[in-house]
Amino acid sequence: MITIIDYGLGNIGSVVNTMTALGVPCVVSSDPFVVGSAAAILLPGVGAAGVGMQNLKTRGLDSVIRNQVLRGIPFIGFCLGMQLLFEYSEEADTVCLGILKGSVRKFRAEKKVPQIGWNTVTVSDSNPYARRLFDGIPAAEFYFVNSYYPVVENPDMVAATTRYGETFASAVAYKNLFATQFHPEKSGAAGTILLTNFIKENL
Amino acid sequence: MTTKRIIPCLDMTEGKVVKGIQFVSFRDAGDPIALAKKYSDDGADELVFLDITATVENRPILLDVVANTAKKVNIPFSVGGGIRSVSDMRQLLLAGADKVSLNTGAVKNPKLITDCANAFGNQCVVLSLDAKASAPGQWNAWINGGTKDSGLSAVEWAKEAARLGAGEILLTSIDADGTKSGFAIELTRQVSRDVPVPVIASGGAGSMKDFLEIFRDGEADAALAASLFHFGELTIPELKRYLSAQNIAVREIL
């Protein structure tokens, strides 16, 4: 069972479809009590950082998510659901959850922003959790839609990197936490393998 | 760098996939859910679903068809047709769409682009622009399913829409649509050079060479086709093999 956090944004329908297709029972909730007692949580992410944080706070979900992650329950986040884990985002000058040290910056080097499309994800050999999650897909293409990317302070947390003008951390994996800048739920067969590995390990 | 995307388009009306030739005379091309699943399995990089008569019939988009289609695909799924408000957009995202395209609604109320982008991020707001030549080297944006000239310059409107928050432009050439004589290269190149967001070229695909040309010469980030794929004249794996051999970076299928 995984609790998918509804904070008024995100491609929730799409995430529910994917998890259901993989045989995982899902609960969609914006209730801090439900999220606070969840055995595992998924923070989806299509949206803007400012509105996202504001919606989490209004619903009383920000501290609940922080406590749950620190308590050690399995966590998975996609796209904005990864970015919000950091301390700060340049998008609308937003203070984020501050679970991970680092910040979120706008792409500067590439002409076309947002990055929209399939890009190569290179897995970090030195991260054992990442190696298990990406088992069977060492270097594959995943689907991205983002104008911003995370700058991770602790290199041990980096699970994978991707190049779009600059090279950035396209996934983090650390203890109970896994989050991707790309959308595994939209990444065809590669995404299915990744999520299946996550489910096998955690649920 | 991202790879060039190949996007099959499902033009829908009354819950069925249809394909028009220059926006009229529809032929029934089949069941949307079965087609979506097939393309997803075949290595399509994205799917676009357009409810082409929602605006002219002044009715909401078919949410149940969107929801049932979304269940079958694990690639990005973009939906458009008759969207007038942030709440329309949210309904579609809840039904399983990943992106929403705005066309007539955005021309009539450009603030809709900004409102949707503020709510969901500009990466999931697609401006769908139907362009028709008004003079050599000039195009206007047409609305209401390609039946009415908005009077706006297509290139200027694309720039303005990107400035307002559209994260991608789905650029259809009405002149090329259904002709199978190739994409509108000049139009696409001009929009692609002038806007800072990705451009999906649409209309006119007839051969694998047309895709090569729209990526290489038209500078498109993605190319969309409908009947070519629906009627089995071209398959996505063979198209990708061909493009890859021509040094166009495409996603490999696992």
User: Residue-averaged pLDDT of chain A, rounded?
Assistant: 94
Strand order of the largest sheet of chain B: 1-4-5-6-7-10-11-12
Q: Given this structure, which CATH class of chain A is correct?
A: Alpha Beta
CATH topology of chain B: TIM Barrel
- Give the CATH superfamily of chain B: Aldolase class I
In the CATH hierarchy, what is the superfamily of chain A?
A: Class I glutamine amidotransferase (GATase) domain
Shape descriptor of chain A reads globular
The tally of structural domains of chain A comes to 1
Order of helices and strands of chain A: EHEHEHHEHEEEEHEEEEEH
Question: What is the CATH first-level class name of chain B?
Answer: Alpha Beta
The shape of chain B, in one word, is globular
Which percent range fits the helix content of chain B?
25-40%
Number of helices of chain B: 10
What's the end-to-end separation of chain B, in Å?
Answer: 19 Å
Oligomer: heterodimer
Kindly give the count of domains of chain B: 1
Percent of residues in helices of chain A comes to 25-40%
Short summary:
Chain A is of the alpha/beta class and 203 residues long.
Task: Produce the secondary structure layout.
The complex is a heterodimer of chains A (203) and B (254).
Chain A: E1 2-5, H1 12-21, E2 26-29, H2 32-36, E3 41-43, H3 49-58, H4 62-71, E4 75-78, H5 80-83, E5 88-89, E6 94-95, E7 102-106, E8 115-123, H6 128-133, E9 139-146, E10 148-152, E11 158-164, E12 166-174, E13 177-180, H7 188-202
Parallel strand pairs in A: 1-2, 1-3, 3-4, 4-13, 5-7
Antiparallel strand pairs in A: 5-6, 7-10, 8-9, 8-11, 11-12, 12-13
Chain B: E1 5-13, E2 16-21, E3 24-30, H1 32-42, E4 47-51, H2 63-70, E5 77-80, H3 86-94, E6 99-102, H4 104-108, H5 111-120, E7 125-135, E8 138-143, E9 148-153, H6 154-164, E10 168-173, H7 185-194, E11 199-202, H8 208-216, E12 222-225, H9 227-230, H10 236-245
Helix pairs in contact in B: 1-2, 6-7
